[in-house]
Each structure stands twice: as structure tokens, then as C-alpha cells.
Design a protein that fits this description.
alpha+beta; 31% helix; globular
């Protein structure tokens, strides 16, 4: 059931997009930060940040963010904030978003596409493996910076 789902990169700072992101963030995190029009404008204007929406029947039903940077070891891309509206889960929307991100990343040339996912997210981890991501044994560290506790 994915014939009427459209994946697209957000290119404008419409208030409806801000509302959609906030609705999805509430499903992704138990303590989401407020996503603002300024946040969206920063993403849209940045050549290294990409926000993709999944839309069905004119309603945003999923999102995926993709960040890109160049390091001495080469081009790196990170998949972040993958979430599908609970009403659309189990309908391949997540797969469509991930596959779109993979295609987008490959179009840009060589590099590495990476993501993290909590082990408790069994369905998400299974999806990522089925899309070609390989589990990498590593330690992930995080340091919240002032004003950015998420």
C-alpha cells in the first residue's frame, strides 16, 4: 500500500511543514523540542541538510532528515529523525523514505551513509538491515551543548 505515497524534499518554509514536523516529533520522542519556522528555514537554506517528507492524500505521514559533510576520510551522510505517523506504520512508508535517502546519497557520489537506532526499535533495525545497512560495532557518545539538550 504505497502507490499513493509521495516522497519529496522540503524546499519551502511553510507553517504547515513546521506543524507536520512537530506532530511527527511527538511520535518520535517522549520529550521533543519545539521545532520552529527558524529551524525549518535553516534546514531548507543549508546545502548540507535535507528534510524529506512522505505525503499521502495531501497529508505528511513521515519524515527523514539527512545531514552531509566532508571529513578527511571522505564524504559522510547521516540519516536522522526517521519517523512514520502511527496511522501509516506497516505500509512501507519507512522503507520508501530510507530508500529515497539511499538513492539521494548515491547520486552525490562516493561516501558513507550512516545512522544510529536504539536496539529496542526492533522494526526500525530490521528495516535498516533489509535496506543494506550493516551493523557496526561501536560506542556512540553524546554531549548535549547548552541550548541544545536533545
Amino acid at each position: 500500500m504505497n502507490g499513493n505515497v509521495r516522497i519529496f524534499e522540503v524546499q519551502e518554509t511553510a507553517e504547515a511543514h513546521v506543524e507536520s514536523v512537530n506532530a511527527l516529533l511527538r511520535q518520535l520522542s517522549s520529550s521533543p523540542h519545539a521545532f520552529t519556522a527558524e529551524s525549518l528555514a535553516s534546514i531548507v537554506s543549508s546545502p548540507s541538510s535535507h528534510l524529506f517528507f512522505a505525503e499521502c492524500d495531501s497529508r505528511v505521514v513521515g519524515m527523514l532528515a539527512l545531514g552531509e559533510y566532508l571529513a578527511p576520510t571522505g564524504r559522510k551522510l547521516w540519516v536522522e529523525d526517521v519517523v512514520v505517523d502511527e496511522s501509516m506504520r506497516g505500509r512501507s512508508v519507512g522503507r520508501m523514505l530510507v530508500e529515497h535517502a539511499v538513492s539521494f546519497a548515491k547520486e552525490g557520489g562516493d561516501g558513507a551513509l550512516m545512522l544510529t537506532s536504539r536496539p529496542s526499535r526492533v522494526a526500525a533495525n530490521s528495516l535498516y538491515r533489509s535496506c543494506g545497512f550493516m551493523h557496526k560495532e561501536t560506542n556512540m557518545y553524546r554531549m548535549p551543548l547548552k541550548g541544545n539538550e536533545s
